[in-house]
Amino acid sequence: MKTIQMTIDEPLLADIDHLIAELQTTRSAFIRAALQAALRQHQIRRLEQQHAAGYTKHPIQPGEFDTWQDEQVWGAE
């Protein structure tokens, strides 16, 4: 692990300190988890943008997925 120094505004720090007391964790552990979650969210957004761009570049064609229609089980109506 590497130690870093950061600046954070006091109201946010107070909110974090309140929450870490509830969670019985440390500032460092909480901030690590928050940063990991932010990285995962960024990756998901990036993949969603790639997915959307792919469908923009190559839109679904009429009938493209019709062959699977009979394979779907929708249950009792």
Description:
This protein is an all-alpha fold and 77 residues long. It has a domain of 33 residues. It is built from two helices and no strands.
**Strand tally:** 0
Shape: elongated
Query: Hey, roughly how much beta strand do the residues contain?
Result: under 5%
Largest sheet features? none
Oligomer: single chain
Helix share, percent: 55-70%
N/C terminus separation: 57 Å
Q: Helical element count?
A: 2
Q: Which class best fits the helix and strand makeup? A: mainly alpha
Tell me the series of helices and strands, N- to C-terminal: HH
Low-confidence stretches: none
Integer-rounded radius of gyration: 23 Å
What is the mean pLDDT? 92
Summarize the structure.
This protein is an all-alpha fold and 77 residues long. It has helices spanning 10-23, 27-57. Helix content is 58%, strand content 0%.
Layout of helices and strands, plus pairs?
Layout: H1 10-23, H2 27-57
Defining traits:
77 residues, mainly alpha
